[in-house]
Write a structure and sequence with these properties.
Helix content is 36%, strand content 21%. The protein is of the alpha/beta class.
């Protein structure tokens, strides 16, 4: 009996000591650090979805090395393309992830590129519809299916390079809506679920509550880790998602690996590569720094299973990259 008690006490001491070492190591963890020796390789490909006779352009950012790496998908906003958000794609790849930026025909640059300037906003509004939403969410499993095939053969640069047991999903604006849908949001009114179980963690830049039903019903059963990023001026020129809509998502999520950052004075375009034309606010260069640091720590913690990254994320790390008026919470 006494021996059992001693063993339990020793094991508890070792676990406590280990936890303390992890926390201390987390203080030295730096999600912004990258090696400048080798830039990520960039490959443009097209996924052909035979079932829908649909071509989905993708841009792949490949990290250095030959070992299988976790995969992060990115879905652009309305009117965007696979070329957008290169700053996140390059950084995540430099940190060891295969990043796949998808382009969604029907809600991409083709919507506005050939339209007269005076008609571009109207064309964009027309494209923000339910049909394009469903096309987008079906693009995700189509791309993952093709990546699984290419991981075996077909594209030499990708063969054996992807660890598809560790997949992250991300997106901005319409891409955030896409991300929410395939990463655990509950569909309403008898709609078929579009959640893909291969996705293990997700980041939504400019999230929003559903148009139908309440946030709790939509997000209350999300099982995987989620990170939400928005701003105090995150209002898009198209759609009805205001700041209140974006802030309604986090309280509805169940606890466990859930995070939210609200960047002070950040507009909708703060999460993109460049400011939107006519933006009222001057861009804050620290916003991109915070976005890269927090998103990378999240991927490292939940796709990379790095205990130091999680210690940084759950400890004082976020405060080191955020400014005094930014807001951060976790549960």
């Amino acid at each position: 009996m006494r021996r059992t008690f001693l063993l339990v006490a020793v094991n508890a001491f070792i676990l406590t000591l280990f936890a303390g070492e992890v926390i201390a190591a987390g203080q030295n963890y730096d999600p912004l650090a990258i090696s400048g020796a080798t830039a990520p390789e960039v490959i443009d490909l097209t996924v052909h979805d035979t079932k829908r006779a649909r071509d989905i352009p993708i841009r792949v950012y490949l990290p250095a090395g030959k070992s299988p790496a976790p995969v992060i998908l990115f879905s652009h906003g309305l009117g965007g393309s696979r070329e957008g958000n290169a700053y996140t794609g390059k950084h995540w790849a430099a940190r060891g992830y295969v990043v796949v930026a998808m382009q969604h025909p029907g809600s991409d640059t083709s919507v506005w590129r050939d339209a007269p300037v005076t008609q571009r906003m109207a064309a964009m509004r027309k494209a923000a519809n339910g049909e394009n939403f469903m096309l987008r969410v079906k693009d995700v499993p189509a791309v993952l299916d093709q990546l699984e095939r290419w991981n075996k053969s077909g594209v030499p640069a990708l063969t054996g390079r992807m660890d598809l047991t560790r997949v992250g999903m991300s997106g901005h604006s319409f891409g955030a809506v896409t991300t929410q849908a395939v990463s655990g949001q509950v569909a309403l009114r008898g709609a078929v679920s579009v959640t893909d179980p291969r996705i293990k963690a997700a980041i939504a830049f400019s999230p929003s509550r559903p148009k139908l039903g309440g946030p709790k019903q939509a997000f209350g059963s999300v099982r995987i880790p989620w990170m939400l990023m928005t701003g105090t001026k995150d209002v898009a020129p198209i759609g009805d998602a205001d700041v209140a809509s974006r802030l309604a998502v986090f309280p509805a999520l169940p606890p466990g690996g859930k995070y939210e950052v609200v960047l002070y004075n950040a507009q909708h375009s703060a999460f993109s590569d460049r400011a939107a034309p006519g933006g009222a606010e001057k861009r804050n260069p620290n916003h991109h720094r915070a976005i890269l640091a927090l998103s990378t720590a999240f991927w490292d913690a939940y796709l990379g299973q790095d205990p130091m990254a999680k210690a940084w994320l759950d400890g004082t790390g976020p405060a080191s990259v955020l400014e005094k008026d930014d807001q951060w919470q976790k549960k």
